[in-house]
Amino acid sequence: MVSTSDFRNGLMIIWKDDIWEMIDFQHVKPGKGGAFVRTRLKNVKDGRELDNTFRAGAKVEEVRVEKRPHQYLYEDDYGLHFMNTENYEQFSMPPEQVDGMEYIKEGGDVDILFRADTNEPMRMDIPQKVELEVTDTTPGVKGDTAQGGSKPATLESGATVDVPLFINEGDVVRVSTQTGEYETRVSTAPNAL
Hints:
By secondary structure, the protein is mainly beta. It has strands at 2-3, 12-15, 18-28, 36-43, 49-55, 59-62, 65-76, 79-84, 90-93, 109-115, 120-125, 129-137, 150-155, 160-164, 172-176, 182-187. It is built from no helices and 16 strands.
């Protein structure tokens, strides 16, 4: 059990017979009345978020989690399939438990959070930045510059991001998975001049 004084971002708790991740919290001490803690919680299973207020000193049950490295294999009717890169065990997760899947390609590395006491997969964490090849975009034209605007580009994972005009098919770009924005070109296409 953890008290409200132990609340922190990323804390996993059992509340209302479900597992929730604490996204944000704020201790409030009003002039009148007792202190309380405002929280923003995210349901680990279905991704819905809600605001909740806990009295100061209230106790909730903490869920211990472990982060394990995995490789994304493929998706089919049974869900998304992953392989543990340490012991090669495979399992699947429903797509609604996975955020940011549009930035992961087959064979990509991810971390998966498991509930320590039941060994149940809870959530997938993707890297903050990924490097992906551009598979479809309008061709760049001589004279296009980084300051000259942007155009949409489809990446090998299926995501679409806005890139500078000089980016061509086959270029590898770095993208932030938090914002979904282009950051830089990592390498150019082999046939580019």
